[in-house]
Amino acid sequence: MKKAIVLLSGGMDSAVTTAIAINKGFRIAALHLNYGQRTQERELQSFEKLCDYYNINDKLVVDISYLAEIGGSSLTDSKINVLDAKLDNTEIPNTYVPFRNANILAIATSWAEVIKAQAIFIGANQVDSSGYPDTRKDFFDAAQRMIDLGTKPDTNIKIETPIIELSKKEIIEYGSKLKVPFEITWSCYRNNDIACGTCDSCALRLKGFDEAGIFDPIKYETRPKY
Amino acid sequence: MKKAIVLLSGGMDSAVTTAIAINKGFRIAALHLNYGQRTQERELQSFEKLCDYYNINDKLVVDISYLAEIGGSSLTDSKINVLDAKLDNTEIPNTYVPFRNANILAIATSWAEVIKAQAIFIGANQVDSSGYPDTRKDFFDAAQRMIDLGTKPDTNIKIETPIIELSKKEIIEYGSKLKVPFEITWSCYRNNDIACGTCDSCALRLKGFDEAGIFDPIKYETRPKY
Predict the structure, then answer these.
(1) Which of A135, A114, A133 is nearest to A124 (CA)?
(2) A169, A190, B43, B126: which has the highest count of C-beta atoms within 10 A?
(3) Measured between alpha carbons, how far is B226 from B221 in angstroms, rounded to an integer?
(4) What is the pTM of this model?
(5) What is the pLDDT of residues B19-77, one digit of tens each?
(6) What does the pLDDT read at residue B82?
(7) Is the Cβ of B67 closer than 8 Å to some Cβ of chain A?
(8) A148/chain B closest Cα distance in angstroms
(9) Do B151 and A133 touch (CB under 8 A)?
(10) Residue A45 dihedral angles phi and psi, to the nearest 5°
């Protein structure tokens, strides 16, 4: 059975991506990163619940809290505030964690090379996203080339980004069709108990559910219309 | 003054690379990685001595011991033996740590983006090396593209590999000219006290010094002719 690593943050997009990888017939090895982010504890909890739900036993939880030490992001530096969402903003918001996805992909590739996984699934999205530079298709194309060149000749690992060109609405519809348990996922950047409903990540999620005409089953402090 | 991050393992190549970066007028921020390798303690000691020697105060030591957890290399897995050097071997030796340099470059880029460094210097070498796939020029070209695409538009970070096309002999001659303190560097893969003289890394180093006609000032258990 072919094997894939899925980057499983515990968020909605990574949960849908897991469901897609399983649906494609892959046996899943799940990778989760603690990088000193505000909601680290809550994300890890969702990761564990999703692994239980999908019977994933091959798990790796990696500490990269050096990203918090390096700083430069409101997600990892408590002195920088997570701002309320401005979805029409063209600037990169301060929740951007410098080059985070490259760090994550490098770890995933090291692991994939050792366990002989053929694919790395990542739930990156360039449509309804916050405009982070490391979530775009051309970034992953460059990463693919780096993987092809930087691993052993007999290693063959393909980056899979199945939802990169979908809107949030489409991701939710797709996930809903695959019976993704949205109630155990976590997207909020701010809180560990009840989602705030107003950060970028909550806003994109609520807007997507709204457009899909599906009720988001998690609890929010407030559910604005976006 | 322009700023550069140097990947400073404490080995000879990274020490020469540091000297080159200083010589080019950069203010140095030094990055060192502990990845659970056998000689972690000794390498860190050399890193600190080199930082003292070059008056580098901007230091970051990052723990990526997840690479040891992932395993797949004799450098990080005590159950796999570090073999004696076979310099004419065309196979990748078991000291290869899967995709290590990509992990290191990702960390360096995250840090560079936050401290606004314009360059990342890495002492990779594709000539007298062990044939690792992640030390070749085309790998760094791909990494450069990933950095250009995956960081903020106003970020401009250049990977510098000044010794990639030099032989070990030439690296030693260059370092000697720049008065690199070879006596405080560490290259051995096996030992933390006296270098073994027979692992791949010792063999390449000894051969280089021999060819340069310079005496390697560190102590060895044995000094074979290669």
Answers:
(1) A135
(2) B43
(3) 15
(4) 0.90
(5) 999 999 999 999 999 988 889 999 999 999 999 999 999 999 999 989 888 888 888 88
(6) 81
(7) yes
(8) 9
(9) yes
(10) -60, -45
Is A119 strand, coil or helix? strand
Cβ separation of A142 and B139 shorter than 8 Å?
no
Task: Return the C-alpha torsion angle B70, B73, B74, B78, nearest 10.
Answer: 10
Which residues 6+ apart lie within 8 Å of B28 measured at CB?
B3, B4, B5, B6, B18, B21, B22, B54, B56, B58
Please give the Cα distance from A6 to A13 (Å, whole number).
11
pLDDT digits (tens, 9 = 90+) for B130-169: 778 888 999 999 999 999 999 999 999 999 999 999 999 9
Cβ atoms of A21 and A4 within 8 Å: the answer is: yes
Q: Give CA–CA dist A171/B165, Å, rounded.
A: 47
DSSP assignment of B6-43 equals EE--SSHHHHHHHHHHHHTTPEEEEEEEE-S-TTHHHH
DSSP sequence for B44-90: HHHHHHHHHHTT--EEEEEE-THHHHH--STTT-TTSPPPBP-TT--
Residues of chain A with pLDDT under 50: none
pLDDT for res A35: 85
Beta bridge partners of B31: B7, B60
How many helices, marked H, and strands, marked E, lie in chain A?
7, 5
Sheet holding A58-63: strands in order across? A58-63, A27-34, A3-7, A119-121, A158-160
B72: distance to nearest CA of chain A, Å? 6
Buried b (16+ CB within 10 A) or exposed e, A106-140: bbbbbbbbbeebebbbbbbbbebbbebbbbbeebb
Q: Tell me what ipTM this predicted complex has.
A: 0.87
Q: How far is CA A214 from the centre of its chain?
A: 21
Nearest to B151 among A98, A106, A109 (CB): A98
Q: What's the rounded Cα separation, in Å, for the pair B37 and B75?
A: 5
Instruction: Tell me the three state secondary structure of residue B211.
Output: helix
Beta-bridge partner residues of A30: A6, A59
- CA–chain centroid gap for B50, Å, is 13
Exposed/middle/buried for residue B10 (C-beta within 10 Å: 0-12, 13-18, 19+): buried
